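Let us work through a complete example step by step.
Step 1: write down the sequence.
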Amino acid sequence: MTSPLIQRARKQARPAAALAAVLTLSAATGWAVAGLAAPASPLPAIEQVKAALKLRLPKTPIDAIDCEDLDGLCEVTSKTTLFYVDRAARYLVIGRIYDMESRQDLTAAKLLALNPDLLAAGGARRTVSDEAQPARKSAPARVDLSGLPANGAVLWGPKDGPKAVVFSDFKCGYCRKLEKELEAIGARVEERPISIFGAESRRISEQVVCASHPDTALRLAYSDVALVNPGPCDTSGLDANEAFAKRHGFSGTPVVVRPSDGAVLEGFRPAAELRAFLTARPDKEK
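Step 2: predict the structure and record it as tokens.
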């Protein structure tokens, strides 16, 4: 008969064994597993991961590590690729992270922000040399906004703030973050939705621009609040946004344009950089 002390010890050992088994399975199958408890460490999570990766992947450039947004996992950026590790950096996970509450492919959104060549639906990265690839039409340094119709834009922010035209997608995580940064600097934003992420993005864009209060609907859309279908309305402005983005090589979001001279800034930027860009005198950049 097993003693109570031994039974208690076996029960205490099970969670650790289960954690190791789940992480091993996730590494083998390519499925990332969230919600795992991190082991105790005297180092902050990012520093711990960075030190471990330096030892285990000495030839892999590590550009960024994020241990905040995914419970139990750290997202590691290496040039234009992503992978995930546990906080001890023992198990490496190559796969896709899906947020089942917001119904977003988080990996695809981040990869698209890192590398606009990627297709949002596939998220596949290049497997042959850049020299073998056809040249991608890159966004120009400046664009002419004058032909864009008013009904393709959602205006928000204080009218006396630094002005920005933003091409965005409501399913894009970096667009959501950019909205907060623009709000922090008190920008006056002319937001022009485009559908990088396909039919669902287009549906949300139509609900926003057709709403009785588009600026409020925009906030709700970025907060993943289901919008009421406002019924048929003129969505030709969204078509114009899509055509403009395609014509100028906007293959990812967000894209910020300074309306004073049409200068283009691709990708997410923090508040300080946005303020400097939007308030810069055009003749100083020539």
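Step 3: interpret the result. The chain is about 35% helix and 15% strand.
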